[in-house]
Specification:
Elements: H1 2-10, H2 15-24, H3 38-48, E1 55-56, H4 73-82, H5 93-108, H6 113-117, E2 120-126, H7 127-142, E3 148-152, H8 156-164, E4 169-173, E5 175-176, E6 181-182, H9 184-193, E7 199-202, H10 216-229, E8 232-237, H11 247-250, H12 252-259, E9 265-269, E10 281-287, H13 291-308, H14 315-325, H15 327-357, H16 365-369, E11 374-376, H17 381-391, E12 393-394, E13 400-402, H18 411-422
Parallel strand pairs: 1-12, 3-4, 3-7, 7-8, 8-9
Antiparallel strand pairs: 2-10, 5-6, 9-10, 11-13
Helix pairs in contact: 4-14, 4-15, 5-14, 7-8, 7-13, 9-10, 10-12, 14-15, 15-18, 17-18
Length: 424
């Protein structure tokens, strides 16, 4: 045996073996770098900047008035409650079902007949992105001939999600660049002109990236036209509570569609509204005509999820369920959401006031008219580049400002910078 091993070690490599090795080194030569995500690219550029004046207005995560991340008190209390829980096993069916039920009640209301009649199904998902992707796969499986209509603009990752699921993407009008508000007439025309039984993605509140939401009456008109055309509404609900500070008010759009008899798909994320970015807790729910149909849909979603990610993380889901299932913790959470929203509203008012004091000839009313985490400033890509070069202020190239990054200590500096790049 020893002689044989020595022989193998001293034996010259054959030509075919060398060729195989060289050929093997070429496997990934065709792979080039992917385009950078616009939001992640902003963060990378910000981190590489050594200026003490730098401001990051790209990340859509809440920060306090010192610009620091916040761990909510309700989350700390939930952590204490679940301390000692065993996390080595997958999430039990009962715990997963409870998370879905709590999430559905949050959207449709605790007294909704949906939960009582079991006319819904759902799964825990990997935050909002995972919930959207799971639905996109579900759509492709059962409606392979269909498109998804996305608003212009929308969260950039929506395009990636449905493209990766091989669902063709179409768009509909939403934002009016001149008014910096909703382009309602064009939106309604696109809904009317879309083929019957089309899928539409809608933001129920705090639209990302524009901060522009339809009024209640406009939502009713949209819902009516969906009924006329038999369209399917899919709501991406990442900011419930962060538009108005009222969880029920921010769910009004979805509840209008429910009242009108729509079957609805809903993606929920607890990343922003509970500050649980690192836990990736989300939920996908779909309404059905009866419990039998709900059971069938759930079985198909489970099969799709099994091939995508198996089972979701446990710890974050227990945090969410603990908060939603405990009346005192839920009340505390609602108070903390209101605190977050009030600070963002104050920063909107302060930014607009500072710009107007500087004598800007532009109309900045949209800063306070828009709602939620983001302000769609109206700045051009060239002006955004100028803010980076001259003022070390970072935002996405479409001019979206994360209002959570605005503080009392930097708002005047920000206003002056915006004024300088937009005054000519």
């Amino acid at each position: 045996m020893l002689i044989w091993r020595r022989y193998l070690m001293t034996r010259p490599m054959s030509t075919s073996s060398s060729a195989t090795t060289i050929e093997g080194l070429r496997w990934w030569e065709r792979v080039g770098p992917a385009p950078k995500d616009p939001i992640l690219a902003v963060s990378e550029a910000f981190l590489a900047d050594s200026s003490p004046l730098k401001i990051n207005l790209g990340v859509g995560a809440y920060r306090d008035d010192e610009g620091k991340p916040v761990i909510l008190q309700c989350v700390r209390a939930a952590e204490a409650k679940i301390s000692g829980t065993q996390f080595l096993e997958s999430l039990s069916s009962a715990a997963s079902t409870k998370l879905v039920e709590d999430s559905v009640q949050l959207v449709y209301g605790k007294d909704s007949d949906i939960v009582k009649e079991r006319r819904f199904t759902g799964l825990q998902a990997l935050s909002g992105t995972g919930a959207c992707r799971l639905f996109a796969e579900f759509q492709r499986h059962f409606y392979p001939e269909s498109h998804i209509y996305l608003p212009v603009p929308t969260w950039s990752n929506h395009h990636n999600i449905w493209r990766a699921a091989q669902v063709p993407v179409r768009t509909f009008h939403y934002y009016h660049p001149d008014s910096k508000g909703l382009h309602f007439a064009a939106l309604m025309d696109d809904i009317k002109n879309a083929p019957e039984h089309s899928f539409f993605l809608l933001h129920p509140c705090a639209h990302n990236p524009t901060g522009v939401d339809p009024t209640e009456e406009q939502w009713r008109e949209i819902s009516h036209q969906f009924k006329v055309k038999n369209h399917f509404p899919f709501f991406d609900t990442a900011y419930q509570g962060l538009a108005s500070g009222d969880l029920d008010r921010d769910a009004k759009a979805i509840r209008i569609f429910h009242e009108d008899g729509h079957l609805i798909g809903c993606a929920q994320s607890f990343a922003k509204i509970m500050g649980l970015h690192g836990h990736r807790v989300g939920c996908l729910s779909i309404l059905s005509v009866d419990e039998k149909q709900a059971i069938a849909i759930r079985s198909q979603l489970q099969q799709i999820a099994r091939a995508m990610y198996g089972s979701p993380p446990v710890h974050g889901s227990l945090l969410v369920s603990t908060i939603l299932g405990d009346p005192e913790l839920k009340a505390l959470w609602e108070e903390e959401v209101k605190v977050m929203v009030d600070r963002i509203i104050r920063m909107r008012a302060a930014l607009r006031r500072s710009l107007e004091k500087l004598g800007s000839c532009l109309n900045w009313e949209h800063i306070t008219n828009q709602v939620g985490m983001f302000c769609f400033s109206g700045l051009s890509p060239e002006q955004v580049d100028q803010l980076v070069r001259e003022f070390h202020i970072y935002m996405t190239c479409d001019g979206r400002i994360s209002m959570a990054g605005v503080t009392t200590s930097n708002v005047d500096y920000l206003a002056n910078a915006i004024h300088e790049v937009s005054r000519y």
